[in-house]
Amino acid sequence: MIDRFNIAADILKLDESIRQRLQRPEKQIVVNFSIVLDNGKEQNFEGYRIIHNTALGPSKGGIRYDTAVNLEEVKALAAWMTWKSAVTGIPFGGAKGGIICDPSTHSKRELEKITRAYTKSLSDIFGPQKDVPAPDMGTGPDEMGWLMDEFSQLHGRIVHGVVTGKHLHAGGSLGRVEATGKGVSIITLLALEKLKLRPAGSTVAVQGFGNVGIHSALFLYEKGLKVLAVSDVSEALYNPDGINIPELILYYNLNNKSIKGYPNSVTIKHEELLLLEVDVLIPAAKEDVITRQNAHEVKAKIIVEGANGPVSSDADAILEANNVLVIPDILANAGGVTVSYFEWLQNTLVEKWGVNQVNRQLENILEKSFETVFRTVKKYNVSPRIASYILALQKVAETQSVKEVALTAENYKQN
Ligand code: NAD
């Protein structure tokens, strides 16, 4: 994140003080709390909430429950959220949170206690106009519902807008579950158009068959693309005639959420999927899967980053030299935060939108963002990734500078 930030900041000749300001979070909070487990013993937990920047609006970002959660990672993820909202023009800043724990070892009741205790520790930080959490790895609509309820109890009124990613009946939005994959598919179609490729018959490989991978594969399959390969942590599947994605989803749901053993395909090695001869490669599993080591072997014409950070910064130049069009995460997977914004908006306005309204507005925002990024590509003669960072940095830095000038003037008056 910092490598790409610095390239964009150099191009913009960003002032050193604002550069330093934007490289560091506005606030970093470490919390420590205990709960009584089902067996009667007490367990202590450490959690974080990092507010990277609020120049463009209330900070927004997920909460992760994972044993690998650490302060440095949460800081980077919080900054990513700032750039993602800025590039799509959503009036939010960036934040991220996490608790060091293994959710699979806790009962529902324990997870509820953990979530409520974490919320209590941060009840002054959260708020619909301050900091708005969302689900991330290890958390979902249940945790968001508990967070909203705890916050509402502490503030003596129902505050739906304090969190997004809630269950539908608890103030969630239609279209949120599939929003990131839908966004990835919208961006993929726009990228194909850039290369004058027709969707029907174009080929795609998708790494990861979770929330992002499933919906990306499904929407593209419905648009007539041939999904030649998909993988999850258990297996990588390949069919040169295209995999029937609705049938695979059915199999996955009946097979304990795993694609292992799906019959109408052959298995390939996980790493082979990334190097297949396809029009589009969608890495939608995890970070750093395309690196200096394998980037020169990538044969896809387009990479659409469904996951956060799947291409490492040392692979950027190799892919660019090989004419691979890379659509960066901060644009490609911004469908999720966009529909989170719609959820927050519906909560704030006490409205309920239909799924067509959600999808139409999502498409509008992503199409506009895509066009703006490609105009910036031309203007600065840079890759779409650096163009996205330039756009985001420009917006945040300008607003931040105005705020700081105002603050300085205020101090001057007071003195
Ligand atoms: P998920 O947990 O639902 O799915 C992850 C998938 O990746 C699973 O199918 C898992 O088996 C697979 N996987 C893990 N390691 C793998 C490997 N080595 N090879 C192949 N497959 C592997 O997660 P998700 O919500 O789909 O998120 C995926 C990525 O997208 C993450 O980087 C996440 O931060 C990012 N993202 C998610 C959202 C969202 O709304 N869910 C939004 C923006 C970005």
From TrEMBL:
Substrate binds at residues 60, 84, 340. It holds the Pfam family ELFV_dehydrog_N. CDD domains: NAD_bind_1_Glu_DH. InterPro entries: Aminoacid_DH-like_N_sf, Glu/Leu/Phe/Val/Trp_DH, Glu/Leu/Phe/Val/Trp_DH_C, Glu/Leu/Phe/Val/Trp_DH_dimer, Glu/Leu/Phe/Val_DH_AS, Glu_DH, NAD(P)-bd_dom_sf, NAD_bind_Glu_DH. The record marks 136 as: Important for catalysis. Keywords: NAD, Nucleotide-binding, Oxidoreductase. NAD(+) binds at residues 180, 211. The keyword tRNA processing does not apply. One of its GO terms (molecular function) is glutamate dehydrogenase (NAD+) activity. Residues 173-404 form the Glutamate/phenylalanine/leucine/valine/L-tryptophan dehydrogenase C-terminal domain. The active site is at 96 (proton donor). One of its GO terms (biological process) is L-glutamate catabolic process. Belongs to the Glu/Leu/Phe/Val dehydrogenases family. PANTHER family: GLUTAMATE DEHYDROGENASE, GLUTAMATE DEHYDROGENASE 1, MITOCHONDRIAL. This is Glutamate dehydrogenase. It comes from Flavobacterium seoulense.
